[in-house]
User: What shape does this take?
Amino acid sequence: MTATVVYRVRPGNPAAHRYTVSCLIEGPAADGQLFSLPAWIPGSYLIRDYARHVLTVRARADGEPVPVAKLDKHTWRVAPCDGPLEFEAEVHAEDGSVRGAFLDARSGFFNGVALLFRVHGRERSRCVLHLEPPAGPAEGWQVATSMRRLSGAEHEFGAFVADGWEDLVDHPVLMGQLDVVSFEAGGIPHALVIEGRHDADRDRLADDLARLCDWHLRFWGRPADLDRYVFLLRLGDRGMGGLEHRFSSALAADRDSLPPPGGLPAEAAYRRFLGLVSHEYFHLWLVKRIRPMELVGADPGREAYTRQLWIFEGITSYYDDLALLRAGLISREQWLEFLGRTLTRVYRSTGRRRQTLEEASFDAWIKFYRPDASSPDNTVSYYAKGALVALALDLELRLRSNGDVSLDQVLHRLWADASATGGSGLAEGAFERLAEDIGGCDLGEFFAQALRGTRDLPLGILLARFGLRLKMRPSEGRSDAGGKPSARSPVPAFWLGLDAAAAQGGVSRVTRVHDGGPAQLAGLRTGDELIAVDGRRLSPELQERLLGGLAERRLIRLHLFREGELLDCEVMPAAAPLDTCWISDDPEAEPAARERRAAWIGA
Assistant: This one.
């Protein structure tokens, strides 16, 4: 390891959302020195161009200015100089997601890729990071990160150390007035660090997360280097999201996602939060320590293509809620509801007929993270469909081996092989060969259909072999996510084939026109502003009845604005597609099927 690179991060102007970042390297830079910020962050496959938030840069050597030239969108060259070189930048930070950097007068958060410059040629150098408090009022501010500490007490600002630049940027940082919920899992200290006001049941959080993390550690086995883990949670109204790191994860959730005090039953929002925690913790193994070979040592300045994201996100999406069931945090009925919702998301995506799972993985850079109105009709999620492939593979292995082999054993072997090889990366096709080896069967036809084809998997047939019935019905509107039987009587039999959302001015803006549906055939477009139906003003109640499905088939006349022009459009409803799924026990299941079900998910 070469000489130390010293970084310093200060919330220089919280009110203006600006961090001041400096990087000091020892020795002369006789040929000049390159500095850059990445274009993307591992775990989120989209070119984000973090350098676009850099406002100013400057360099000094022995206190004297040194010329800096920008070479491309994210690289700067400092002119040759003698003595220690300091590179300093001011960076705007107003990204409230888990992927970037944020700062205001109340709190701060950053992922290293957004602030900590890569020093070309010094990537393997030991890195020391000094985190400083804001210059202005910051009463009660603390700091949390999984990076190893060099100075200061726990949660105080101070100095931290990392083994090279890749390690440095793999420890997100949260600062502000923090609430720390500590617990132990597998003999390892863990913490949930919360930024944002809440009134959660801290004891319940600690107990539930300990049970969940314990299950994961028992399932996989403890990584040799895992001696601490931190969940960094920002509460607000940004919705739910997460990003995995080697010793931590960055989480975002709404305030009502946490359990209220008083021992009340787990609400749906809290169950989703636990699923998010489970998903990111599962990545501790599958993504952070078992990686696609194409992403090992990938260039942070350009796309790294792989057809294997369905393995790393799809299998994780299958096990995240299954872990809640196995850890005793949700019931079997609640897990089946989750599974029904995943099925619904996939079956409502007609894009599954056009894009294969491997194509979805490969094109994540240009399609998955950049959805548009046509995405549901042209793409499929490697998260959701990947989870269904994992489900089908698990059931196939159990059936073909008479219950002796499951997807569990494949993952255990995958982890053992990765541990033995030091995480060299999973080659394309290796997972398929491993599943065949562990299962002792030919899965070529299965993988050809699941990964490289667009026909639906025979999940209804597979589930029936485990004493479960897959049932399908029409959607009942925007709030109907599936997973449950119909709540309406009569069940809607016809639809218009469009989705809409309330917009300003009391209108509803069309957000999706379903491919091949009645609205598309009638000429409606995404962006049309609906104002009336059959001469009646479009109220929220009327919209819900209209878009939630119709009990009878009759001509519907829509009045709308398109680019400022008033238009009329007549739509004849068609038979509503059966794209909403739920799963129930089969009361007529044979004893062998019930036994297989009990071995899989309990009686």
Observations:
- The longest strand covers residues 5-13.
